[in-house]
Amino acid sequence: TIIYFGWKLTDNTFVSEQYIENIKKSTPSGATYDRDINGAWVAQAGICFPDFNRSVNYIPAANLPQNFDYYFMGKDFGWEHKGALCLCGRRGDTIYILKTWCKKYRSIEEWIEIIQNNIINKKTYGDPVIYCDSARPDLIQKMQIAGLRAVNAKKDVAAGIACVDSLYKQCKLLVVADSGEGAEEFDTEIDTYCWKENAEEPVKEQDDMMDAVRYAVYTDSLYGEV
């Protein structure tokens, strides 16, 4: 005999209604919501970021805050598939994706030059930490030798996706609509970045910009300014 007990968040009589509402507002839609709120263990399915809303999460550059607490970056390496890079700024509890780059067949030397010319030399963004895909320690080392603050990103896939989507849902992750070279790729991938069937990981296709953003946003959300 198998006895199954299912409990919803609302079944917990020891927490307030306000607490429950706050949890609901910050929990990503889809399987994560069904699991954490409704107590139903369902498989991840569909797009990874169902809470991204173009009319809310995209903002014009003119609406950016004048000052940020600090800046940081995310880097997904590539060659046959596109390499991706994003610059983010944090203001309070909100993260802004300010600039993006995305392109195939770009050497690590060219990526380093982009960061130096567009970020470091402009002196607007300080010397931001760059959260990188740890699968390429050789390329991270080259960035470090060039004087960049390149470090391993935190790469817990399911937790990272949930973190990013939660911020989209709360309007605490906003994207400059015309963020640069990677803007078109971002706009395409946000609709195609989806869960692999019966797996806790996304399909590894058209994921470059999404991975760079996840590395940056999730790692910063865990550790804050480095």
SSE inventory with pairings:
Blueprint: H1 17-26, H2 31-36, H3 54-57, E1 58-59, E2 70-76, E3 83-91, E4 94-103, H4 108-120, E5 129-132, H5 137-145, E6 149-152, H6 157-169, E7 173-176, H7 183-192, H8 208-223
Parallel strand pairs: 1-7, 2-5, 4-7, 5-6
Antiparallel strand pairs: 2-3, 3-4
Helix pairs in contact: 6-8
Short recap of the structure:
The protein is of the alpha/beta class and 226 residues long. The protein has 8 helices and 7 strands.
Distance between the termini: 53 Å
Order of helices and strands: HHHEEEEHEHEHEHH
**Percent helix among the residues?**
25-40%
- Unreliable parts: none
What is the global morphology? globular
> What radius of gyration results from the CA coordinates?
19 Å
Q: What class do helices, strands and sheet pairing give?
A: alpha/beta
SS elements, strand count: 7
What does the largest sheet look like? 7 strands, mixed
Mean pLDDT over the full residue set:
88
Per DSSP, what share of the residues sits in E-state strands of 2 or more residues? 15-25%
Number of helices: 8
Largest sheet strand order: 1-7-4-3-2-5-6
Task: Describe the 3D structure.
- The chain is α/β, with parallel strands linked by helices.
- The chain is about 35% helix and about 20% strand.
- The chain contains eight helices and seven strands.
- The chain has a seven-stranded mixed sheet.
- Helix 5 links the parallel strand 5 and strand 6 (about 150).
- It is globular.
- It starts with 16 loop residues before the first helix and ends with a helix.
- The model has no long low-confidence stretch (mean pLDDT about 90).
